[in-house]
Amino acid sequence: MATVLAVVIFISYIGLGIPDSLFGAAWPAIYSEMTLPVSYANFITVIHATGTIISSLMSATLIKRFGTSKVTFISTLMTAAALLGFSVSDNMVWLCLSAIPLGLGAGSIDTALNNYVAVNYSARQMSFLHTSYGVGVTVSPYLMSLAIGDGNWRSGYRTMFIIQLSIAVLVLVTLPVWKKVKEQKAEPEVKQKTLSIPKALAIPKFKATLLIFIFSVAIEAVCLVFGATYLVEARGVTQEQGAGCITFYFLGMTAGRFLSGIISSKLSPKQIIIIGEGITFVALLLIIAPLNIAFATVGLFMIGLGNGPLFPNMTHLVPIHFGTQLSQSLIGLQMAASSVSVLLSPILFGQIAEHLGSHLFPYVLMLMLILTASATCRLFLQGKKSAD
Questions:
Q1: Dist. CA 358–CA 222, nearest whole Å
Q2: Same domain, yes or no, for 141 and 19?
Q3: Are 268 and 376 part of one and the same domain?
Q4: How far apart are CA 289 and CA 282, in angstroms?
Q5: How far apart (Å, rounded) are the C-alpha atoms in residues 141 and 156?
Q6: One domain, residues 138 and 66
Q7: Residue 311 contacts residue 261 (beta carbons within 8 Å)
Q8: Is 187 part of a structural domain of the chain?
Q9: Sheet strands (E) in the chain
Q10: Which parts of the chain have pLDDT scores under 50?
């Protein structure tokens, strides 16, 4: 039963990844059809990120009251409804309204499933969970590109709505499985404690984990939003080539998380995190070096390969470092901090690119990596408790 439930959780996490890269792929077609300024995308992304932050902060209370399975079902259903809303939107107001349930649903799913897997499964399963997310963010823009090629971005959203609704139905019909797995566990279920933000920040080493999430997620967000722009404006490739090259970043992220799961029986999360940061460093040197575009593309792949495993492995360490009673609240805060980073880091780099040039892309990522590595040293070297 535990294996069946793991499959359901992985599929649910694919659904979490579907909307995250879908809007970026569809936006050029959307703003052209609706004659909107290109910058209006910021309104939708801010609403989405704000909803994610709010639901992440509320998730510990909601999950404690309703349980992980019901929260996962309702949240998946909300994101499905949001995708349907996007597909029928004909103005900016409806796009913004559709972004509200999308953000609220995404934050709850993220926190609920991350904590459940961190507490009940191994580091291998945690990496495979986030590999599932990589599948979602890789497949959805590809399907949207096919829809846009046929001249109808709305059909792309409708396709994603059907997939997301099917995932919600799957979670609904397997709700009894969650109960059976709970009953089969030999040890009693650990009761989660709800912490306020000040109390959480007062916990030794927790600030360091937040910083790792913030800066490593910032690398991911800036690559997602401005990777193709850097290739076009600073490296001189065509828009089509830029869009194709940035796909390798997603492939690298998915591969990195999958390989992390494979090698987790040989290496500890701490070792995987340190190796990943080393790979990301080499990747950025490849991009900075005055080499042809093929090396920059390899560099983007390697950024995903190295940086991708940090999120699942850091999440898996939460109950190890801080105990299972606090894990739900702390993971919720980490998801919220990650969402803040997703919201603010592209805005910050957008200002840098506008005033100083997009050629600074790899240097800004290098600074974020240095800050990530510094926080990693603080986490693993502070105190006596080992992360192995």
A1: 11
A2: yes
A3: yes
A4: 11
A5: 9
A6: yes
A7: no
A8: no
A9: none
A10: 383-388
Distances (CA, A) of 11 to 15, 131, 170: 7, 11, 9
44 vs 82: CA distance, rounded Å: 12
Q: Residue 51 in contact with residue 99, Cβ under 8 Å?
A: yes
Tokens of 343: 């919201």
Give CA separation, 314 vs 8, 260, 273, 318, 332, in Å: 22, 12, 8, 7, 13
| pTM (whole model) above 0.85 | no
pLDDT of residue 384: 45
Give CA–CA dist 243/224, Å, rounded.
11
Tokens of 195: 């912490």
Domain that holds residue 141: 1-182
pLDDT of res. 124: 79
Q: How many CA atoms are closer than 13 Å to the CA of 241, on its beta-carbon side? A: 12
Distance CA 166, CA 12 (A): 10
Contacts of 27 (CB under 8 A, 6+ apart): 38, 41
Q: Look at residue 382 in the predicted model and tell me its pLDDT.
A: 62
